[in-house]
Amino acid sequence: MIVQRVRIAISGLGNLGRRFVRLLADKKVYLQERYALDLLLVAAADSRGAAYDASGLDPSLVLKTKQSAGTVASYPGVGRPKMSSLNLAHQVDADIWCDATPVNLADGAEPGISCIREALKRGMHVVTPNKGPIVLFYQELTRLAAKNNVSLRFGGTVAGGLPALYIGTRDLRGAMIDRVEMVPNLVTGFILDLVGSGITWDDALALAKREGVLEADPAWDLDGWDAVAKLVIVANSVLSYPAKLEDVKRSGISGLSVEKIRSEFERGHRMRLFASATRTGSGYSLIAAPRTLPSDHPLGQLGPKEMGITYYTDIYGIITATIKEETPLPSAATMLRDILDIMLRTADR
Q: What number of CA atoms fall less than 13 Å from residue 215's CA on the CB side?
C-alpha cells in the first residue's frame, strides 16, 4: 500500500486547534491503514509565535510546549517567537492550511482572512471552522480557491460537528430546498433549559462559562449573532443565495422573560434560538430569533447540548439531522473530516 503524505499547517491553538492537533497524533495509524494518508503536521502558530519544521513536528510536543510555555514558539529548535500566522502562511511549504483562529466579525475577520487568502493564492487547500472569513468573504474566497485550483472547506462553521453543510451541498443535489430550519447554537439551548428547570439566569450563565460553552463575549451567543452567522453561511453555500449579516432579521434570548421560559418548559416544549431560511419569490427570507418548539417539531426534542437542522425539499422529503456535542471535540474533528474529503476526492480524480 502506497501511503500519501499530506503536509499540514495550523493557525490557532485554542480549544479547537489543540484538539485537532491531538487528533493528528491519536488517529495517525488509523488514517494510514484506512485511507493510506499520512497527515504530517509541519507548522503551527498561535498569537505569540510559530514553529515550523519541514520534516514534521511532534503533535504531542506541540501540545506540551503550548501548555507549559503558553506558546508553540518555544518548541525546541524550530520555534519562531513573534512570527505571525501571516508570515508563516507566506513561508510554509504545506498542502493544507487549517485556520482555527477565533471568530472576529468586528475587525474584518482578521487574522484568519489574510492567512486564508495567502494560503489559497499559494496553492494550499484551506480548512477552517472559523465563521468570520466565510460570513464576510464567501464569494471572494470561493472564487480565489477556484482560480488556484484548490479546495476551501468549512464544514465546522455550522452546528459544530454536525455535517449540516455536507448534507445540503452534497446529499441534496438536484433538489429544490424550500425551507431550512436550524437550531445551530449549542449554548443558548443549554442556558434556556437550565433556566426552564428553575436555575436563575445568572447561575445558568456562570455554569455555561465554567463548562466552556459560552464565549468570552456572551453577546455573540445571547444576542443571536452566532446563529445569524451560521444562517448566512447556509444561505450562501447551500442555497446559493448571496446573503449578508444585515439580511437576517435577528433577535437574541437576553430579552426573554424567565416566566415565559419556565412556562414553556413545564408544558414539555423547548425554547430555542431558531434560524430559518424560507423561499420567497425573490430569494429567501432569513430569520434568527427565539422560538418555542413543540415536541412534535422535527427539532422539538433537542436536549441542552444538542443542535440540529431540517431541510424541506421537493424530491427528498423532509430531512433532519441532529448532534449531541458535550465537548468541543466534534467541532475540532470537522477539520479532519474536511481534510479527508479534500484528499480522497483528489485521489479519485
A: 16
